[in-house]
Write a structure and sequence with these properties.
binds nicotinamide-adenine-dinucleotide, globular
Length: 459
């Protein structure tokens, strides 16, 4: 009897899994079936001499506002946030920036004010820096209302949203860039430069992570990042913030551009202990954090397999007590570059500092590596952007966004890259549910990644 029931259960639950997965596959098929617009891989729009920008969410968005507004040929046409005090604070700051803000309109108070703003102001571009679940709906509506969308990471939280972004961008011919600032870090730019020069040979394997202990954010219980982020952690599964680590290594490997692409992913998580303990230790038993179950594993480890068979480890942990790392490791047939701390090893050594790959060039010795291989973009912009946020990467990113828009160039990160990088979250969740079974990446480019140009070394 027990055996019969067990078998029946397995049958029913297997059917359940098949039904769910075929349902979601059908849904994906519908969303991905045919392109109703243009391929956006190397999309270039007409040059914008004066860029009229609106901002939604101006906490992290405040940095984007400052960096944008200090570049020539920029105009601020609208600021929107839920809170009046934040809008007023940012409005005051505009006086010290160089952008034109003579026609700025302000919006706050209601979660749908941004929709009114889009219709009233008709901006050229919108910068979105709100909570994660707002990114995709906001980006999609911005494009529908005629604006290029620039969103904070991630671009969306599920595959349906990501397909919606791709389809809308293709249909409206509007850029939709996920602003992965880490791709503009000094080390990341230098590693890209070293990879493109072929100095570590054929690329085989990368390691990426977002390991950042952020339990303290739970003290933002009523307003601010921790408020929505903590809720998201209790309700979601998988690798929840993959793009800071993955974005740079994906560009070293040219994934989704010409050479190679994301094929499938396997994912496993550890037990979930740290957040529940932290809530218990720091909040009284009636506090909302103690009524939630933080059941997503404290540390997630996912491995991507690419079409060429290369591997990328992507880890995520915002809970455990350990130092910050994005790993930032890229391994080739002739050497390895790694981050946190920065180290490089070449098979034939490096200019008298190392004689082979058995020891790292690191610490003060790295000065010579930077002198030789710093990316030209970093050399060109570092002095202008050094105080722009996150060691200068925020400013370089914004400089490039504005430079590309003004000159009608393809952006450094296309809509498909943002979607592939963000897709780690829902795909890892599915893999975890199926005990680590491989999950195929949808091809957001519908096969056209082979036509997309390699990201060149921008001078
Ligand atoms: N790339 C980076 O280095 C980096 C750094 C920090 C944050 N982030 C990302 O930036 C985003 C924002 O993070 P944050 O720390 O500023 O969060 P936050 O909660 O402090 O700020 C988000 C702001 O968006 C506003 N907002 C939310 N919904 C809105 C709506 N419907 N209409 C108008 N405004 C709305 C909120 O009022 C809030 O002021 C997140 O995606 C986060 O992951 C990225």
């Amino acid at each position: 009897m027990r055996e019969y029931n067990r078998r029946k259960f397995i049958q029913t639950s297997t059917l359940g899994v098949i039904a769910t997965s075929s349902l979601s596959l059908n849904c994906q098929r519908n969303l991905s079936s045919e392109r109703k617009g243009s391929y956006m891989g190397d999309f270039k729009d007409k040059p914008l001499e004066n860029i009229r920008a609106a901002f939604i969410g101006i906490n992290r968005g405040s940095t984007h506002l400052k960096n944008f507004a200090n570049l020539p040929g920029t105009e601020i046409v609208a600021l929107c946030d839920l809170y009046e005090d934040i809008v007023v604070r940012e409005l005051k700051k505009l006086e010290s920036y160089r952008a034109n803000f003579s026609n700025v309109k302000t919006y706050w108070g209601d979660k749908n004010q941004w929709k009114v703003m889009l219709k009233e102001v008709r901006p050229d571009v919108v910068f979105i820096s709100t909570n994660w679940r707002n990114h995709a709906p906001m980006a999609v509506q911005c494009m529908k209302d005629g604006a290029h969308a620039f969103s904070e990471v991630p671009l969306g939280v599920n595959l349906e949203e990501l397909w919606d972004i791709v389809n809308t961008s293709e249909k409206t011919k509007k850029h939709c860039m996920m602003m992965e600032n880490v791709n503009y870090g000094r080390d990341e730019l230098m590693f890209l430069n070293i990879c493109r020069k072929g100095l570590i040979g054929e690329l085989l394997h990368a390691e990426a992570a977002y390991i950042h202990e952020l339990r303290w954010q739970m003290f933002n219980a009523d307003r601010g990042t921790g408020n929505w982020r903590t809720l998201h952690y209790s309700e979601s599964k998988g690798n929840l913030y993959p793009t800071h680590g993955l974005g740079p290594v994906a560009q070293y490997m040219n994934l989704a551009r010409h050479d190679d692409n994301f094929k499938h992913i396997i994912s496993l998580s550890s037990p979930a202990i740290g957040r529940n303990n932290f809530a218990n230790e720091n909040f009284d038993s009636n506090h909302k954090w103690n009524k939630m179950d933080f059941s997503n594993g404290d540390i997630n480890s996912s491995i991507i397999k690419t079409n060429l068979g290369r591997t990328v480890l992507v880890q995520w942990d915002e809970t455990s007590p350990r130092p910050y790392t994005r790993l930032n490791l890229i391994q080739g047939t002739k050497g390895t570059l790694a981050g946190f701390p920065t180290r490089v090893a070449f098979e034939n050594g490096f200019e008298g500092l190392t004689k082979d790959h058995l020891s790292w060039v690191e610490g003060d010795e790295l000065k010579r590596v930077y002198e030789k291989y710093d990316h030209p973009l970093y050399k060109r912009l570092n002095k202008k952007t050094i105080s722009s946020g996150h060691g200068g990467m925020d400013g370089i990113m914004m400089y490039r966004i504005v430079e590309c828009l003004k000159n009608g160039l393809a952006l450094d990160q296309n809509v498909y890259e943002g979607c592939f990088w963000s897709a780690i979250t829902p795909l890892s969740a599915r893999s975890i549910e199926r005990d680590g079974a491989p999950q195929s990446f949808p091809d957001f480019t519908r096969g056209d990644w082979k036509k997309t140009k390699t990201l060149k070394i921008v001078l």
